[in-house]
């Protein structure tokens, strides 16, 4: 009897040990998968703004399919939380390998705060380095490279063809001017079905849209006296534009980035023209299909200043590597995929203009983007000279915009405004 009990006890003990070992093993495997991904696979933590969600989903899916040794975790950041998230990365409270920025100027700020890694160990001498070399002529530090262009946003004028036709207004023609833009806005402004129709949006004082006429003349650096004079003329023109039309255009409530703002007016047929990049094509087309709308729209190139050659205006989204990355080789391999031919073709197939614009990528974009008719205007005609900027440039732009906002609000005179700007720019350069 005692022997049988002993055998039962031994069997029970062996089963208990086996179950315990199994459970511990499963828990260890679970913890390993949660923290570092499946065994043998590198996990890259990638950060980007919410507007990049669709593009990154395409790129990540394709990259992981080709590289089964890598898992990419995308962390989308609301615009209002970009600074907080960057500080968490800087303080090593969050692991990061790659960071996508909406423009090069934003990346320059965080490069100066030492959270971005110099890429030259991987970038120098590569195909992508040769392709993007002309973009970096204005870099503060020509011996280092901290970001690579990934997506290119060329500003154009979206216009409602149906509204133009109903009012007998001619479409914008190639080579049109800012004065013609103003005149078309005047003709399009009025009332329809007891609702206000706006020819275009106003140059709201707290935004930087007032710089656009100057930028189409090639101005981008306020520390350059010639550029500063063009910014002055641009501010004066926009002040006259808004003063002349008084209450004809919406301002604060309609000039933000929310879809419910000016895009809604455009879809309702109550906004004739507005400035935008290629990324809005997908949003408009999807909303038109969703709502069953049948109006026609197109895009035109930005107006030119009278008797001046026109310079295209771009916003360049860039990708960077975090200084704290544990996997620089793997991180750069993903970056290379995004900024080169493969990534460019994927973006183009989704009607998104990539920075890499080989003939095959451009053809793919035009094939995928049937509406609007002149989607080709979004493609690059020349290298965006203002792409590579620095912290000093950003500070100068901010100082200039702060002063001009007071001028546009009619709180101070033009001469006084630009005297203040010149003083502030001198102080910034002296630091």
UniProtKB/TrEMBL annotation:
Gene3D superfamilies associated with the record: Periplasmic binding protein-like II
Localisation: Cell envelope
Keywords for this protein: Signal, Transport
Keyword DNA repair among record annotations: no
Entry-linked PANTHER family: ARABINOSE-BINDING PROTEIN-RELATED, SN-GLYCEROL-3-PHOSPHATE-BINDING PERIPLASMIC PROTEIN UGPB
Family statement drawn from the similarity comment of this UniProt entry: Belongs to the bacterial solute-binding protein 1 family.
Protein name: Extracellular solute-binding protein
Organism: Hungatella hathewayi
């Amino acid at each position: 009897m005692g022997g049988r009990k002993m055998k039962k006890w031994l069997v029970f003990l062996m089963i208990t040990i086996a179950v315990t070992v199994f459970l511990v093993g499963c828990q260890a495997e679970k913890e390993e998968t949660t923290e570092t991904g499946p065994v043998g696979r590198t996990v890259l933590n990638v950060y980007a703004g919410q507007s990049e969600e669709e593009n990154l989903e395409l790129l990540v899916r394709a990259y992981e399919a080709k590289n089964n040794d890598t898992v990419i975790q995308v962390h989308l950041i609301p615009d209002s939380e970009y600074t907080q998230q960057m500080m968490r990365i800087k303080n090593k409270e969050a692991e990061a390998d790659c960071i996508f920025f909406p423009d090069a100027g934003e990346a320059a700020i965080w490069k100066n705060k030492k959270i971005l890694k110099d890429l030259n160990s991987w970038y120098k001498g590569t195909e992508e380095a040769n392709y993007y070399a002309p973009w970096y002529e204005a870099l503060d530090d020509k011996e280092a490279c901290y970001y690579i262009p990934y997506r290119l946003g060329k500003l154009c004028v979206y216009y409602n063809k149906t509204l133009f036709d109903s009012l007998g207004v001619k479409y914008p023609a190639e080579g049109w001017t800012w004065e013609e833009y103003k005149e078309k806005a005047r003709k399009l402004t009025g009332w329809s079905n007891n609702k206000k129709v706006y020819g275009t949006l106003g140059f709201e004082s707290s935004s930087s849209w007032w710089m656009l006429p100057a930028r189409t003349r090639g101005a981008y650096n306020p520390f350059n006296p010639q550029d500063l004079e063009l910014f002055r003329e641009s501010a004066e023109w926009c002040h006259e534009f808004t003063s002349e039309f008084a209450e004809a255009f919406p301002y604060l409530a309609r000039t933000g980035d929310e879809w419910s703002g000016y895009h809604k007016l455009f879809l309702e047929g109550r906004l004739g023209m507005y400035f935008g990049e290629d990324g809005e094509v997908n949003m408009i087309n999807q909303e038109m299909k969703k709502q069953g709308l049948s109006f026609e729209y197109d895009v035109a190139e930005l107006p030119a200043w009278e008797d001046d050659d026109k310079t295209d205006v771009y916003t360049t989204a860039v990708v960077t590597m975090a200084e704290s990355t544990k996997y620089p080789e793997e991180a750069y391999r993903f970056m290379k995929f995004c900024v080169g031919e493969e990534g460019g073709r994927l973006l183009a197939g989704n009607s998104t203009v990539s920075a890499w614009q080989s003939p095959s990528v451009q053809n793919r974009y035009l094939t995928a983007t049937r509406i609007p008719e002149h989607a080709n205007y979004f493609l690059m005609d020349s290298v965006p000279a203002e792409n590579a900027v620095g912290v000093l440039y950003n500070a100068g732009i901010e100082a200039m915009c702060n002063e001009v906002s007071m001028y546009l609000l009619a709180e101070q005179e033009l001469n006084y405004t630009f005297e203040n700007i010149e003083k502030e720019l001198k102080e910034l350069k002296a630091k």
